Amino acid sequence: MIHQYKMNGYNIVMDGNSGAVHAVDPVAYDIISMYENKKKNEIISIILARYEGVTKEDVIETIEEVEELVREQLLFSVDPFEEVAMEFKSKQSVLKALCLHVAHACNMDCKY
């Protein structure tokens, strides 16, 4: 699962399944947002129309870098718990123990 957001001038892309966090430029940010839903040629056309000064070679190189991250399971990685997630819901679990750890000293600088 991919999460994309912009914060403090950074374009951040996070893969929730692998835990990888990427700070990317605006072109890569847009390519990643379109990567699963559009064909390579469509992505190239959209990016070239959207960004002045970006060449076709730049876009192709960025797409290749995204593809490399996908191969390395750092983007669009597989959820390792997808298959077992439903099993956890169907199992009936019983709470066997509950431990309460009380502070040994006052945490709020109390005076008695």
Fold blueprint:
Blueprint: E1 2-7, E2 10-15, E3 21-24, H1 26-34, H2 40-50, H3 56-71, H4 82-90
Antiparallel strand pairs: 1-2, 2-3
Helix pairs in contact: 1-3, 2-3
Report what the structure shows:
- It is a single chain.
- The protein is of the alpha+beta class.
- It has one domain.
- Helix content is 40%, strand content 14%.
- The protein contains four helices and three strands, in the order βββαααα.
- A three-stranded antiparallel β-sheet has the order 1-2-3.
- Helix 1 packs across helix 3 and helix 2 crosses helix 3.
- The longest helix has 16 residues.
- The chain starts with a strand and ends in a 22-residue tail after the last helix.
- The model has no long low-confidence stretch (mean pLDDT 89).
**From the structure provided, what is the oligomeric state, counting identical versus distinct chains?**
single chain
Mean pLDDT: 89
Q: What is the CA-atom radius of gyration, in angstroms?
A: 23 Å
Distance between the termini: 53 Å
The counted number of beta strands is 3
What is the 3D form? elongated
Task: Give the H and E element order.
Answer: EEEHHHH
Low-confidence runs of at least 5 consecutive residues? none
Number of helical segments with 4 or more residues: 4
Give the fraction of residues assigned to helices: 40-55%
Q: Assess the beta-strand content as a share of residues.
A: 5-15%
Total domain units: 1
In spatial order, strands of the major sheet run 1-2-3
